[in-house]
Amino acid sequence: MYAAGDATLEDIQSELTDRGLRTRATQRRPAGPISVSKIHQLLQDPYYVGIVSYKGDEYSGRHEPLIDRDLFDEVQDLMASRGRAGERRRVVHHYLKGTLWCGACWHRDQTIRRMIIRRTISRSGDEYLYFFCRGTQDGTCNAKYSNVQRVEDAVAEHCRTVQFTPDFIHAMRQSLADALTDQEASQHALKEQLESQLARLDTQESNLLDLAIDDTIPKDKIRAKLREIGVTRERLNAQLAAAVDTLTDAVEFISVNLRLLENPYELYRHGSDEVRRRLNQAIFTRVFIDHDEITGHALKAPLDDLLTVQTTYHANSVAKSCEEPPPGIEPFTWSEHHPATTKEGAAHKGDSFTSTTLRLPTNLDHRVPVSSKPHLVGLTGFEPATP
Fold this sequence. Notes:
It comes from Tessaracoccus palaemonis. InterPro entries: DNA_bind_recombinase_dom, SSR_resolvase. It holds the Pfam family Recombinase. Residues 1-85 form the Recombinase domain. The protein has helices at residues 9-18, 36-43, 69-84, 103-109, 148-158, 166-214, 219-242, 248-260, 264-270, 273-283, 303-320, 334-337, and strands spanning 51-54, 57-60, 100-102, 115-121, 127-133, 146-147, 284-290, 293-299, 347-349, 354-359, 367-372. With 387 residues, it is an alpha+beta fold. The strands form four sheets. Strands 3-7-8 form a three-stranded mixed beta sheet. The chain has a three-stranded antiparallel beta sheet with strand order 4-5-6. It is flat, with a radius of gyration of 29 Å. The protein starts with 8 loop residues before the first helix and ends in a 15-residue tail after the last strand.
């Protein structure tokens, strides 16, 4: 029920109660429905896929799993996605919860307040859903209530504003392909260098063993040198193992984001409520709304950077078609905003992700940032640490 994406924990609680599941009665407390918190705990318990936890470690149990691993993982992903959006699903279920924020508060004094949803039933039995700012409950915001249906339409239409153009996607993909081609040569040179250093270590080790046989050098010094060689060999082998596909993860990360905004409106319009929820979480950090209208948004990284680059890309394309650039258009240099990234084709470990710079085709004279998973490159960079 939970993996289907439509049921809340309360729905599951009701279903279990209807089927006769109750807590065990005690002297103090009679039998009753399973609590919502217990259901939340059950959905995360790896025991049901055959895993036993003991003193913080997990072991394969002797019992037969009750559910398969794919279903368990799907439920964990769904619970995590709802948790990342900061949602409380105990009142009303809606895929926009956790995404909408009050535009009136933000534009008035930069205050961040979440929009919450409420359901009311009229005397005739009709149901009404609407979003409203949390600040209206304590009188700190006087924004009007927003009709849910009109907000849904506004968010869907807003997806048109965060779309990459075909020519920009083509230019970016060509740049990424060129970066991978350049990487092959540098990776080959790096491997040769590491293998050469490992060969020299083998020679040094062999010479030390010969000296040990002849008793030319004290045994303690030889053992210390051999330990030092062992530590160096382990470090070089680790670097050699890591010296593959350094940019591949970064390129794939950017490619996925390019595909995400290739046509987000159609993807959003035809998606289920759960697909829309995940799209909102993947694209937006916040969507600001004021009286049924979208008044602004904050995008997830790296989509915010890529859309900025796209704007500059088209501005430069227009400028190059004129004898003089239009007023107000300045050359874009990524290092002005992120000075830590300057070396072309190299990756540097940033605060929270690895960044690299790629040079786009000649009609765009600036550098384009891409980001990938953290810790792809050690603190010493590509070159091994040597005296």
